[in-house]
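Subject: for your reference before the review

Hello V.,

The reviewers asked for a structural picture of the protein, and I figured it would be easier to keep everything in one thread rather than splitting it across files. Below is the amino acid sequence we used in the manuscript, unchanged from the supplementary table.
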Amino acid sequence: MRRGYKRRPAAVGGVVAMAGRGKLIAVLGDEDTVTGFLLGGVGELNKHRKPNFLVVEKDTSLTEIEETFRSFLAREDIGIILINQFIAELIRHVLDGHTRSLPAVLEIPSKEHPYDATKDSILRRARGMFTAEDLR
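And here is what came back from the structure prediction:
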């Protein structure tokens, strides 16, 4: 590496890649969403052989979804959690309790359920930070 040259983190789909800092992206979603991210190279197992993804199907219990989400929050190796918005609605009470900046929780659309900005927890928090006067 040349002297004085600083290496910048690679940008992936608008999200700064966490690989440089050793953080993973976790995914909670329907089969199509999780499969797409796994094909993109997101899937990993930690040292306890726990995956960083969960495919939520019709028969997946609410308890399993909540426990998996909480386990992702507790893992030091996860920097971003991607969750389908319709699944986030099922565990909204757990999502709203998460106030730390890391791991960042991003709600994403699925093929069957379009994105609704009014339900997004991050956007709701951001709206509460600004008044109409601040935006003028």
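For the response letter, the relevant points are probably these. The chain is about 30% helix and 20% strand. Confidence is low (pLDDT under 50) at residues 5-20.

Happy to draft the paragraph if you're swamped.

O.
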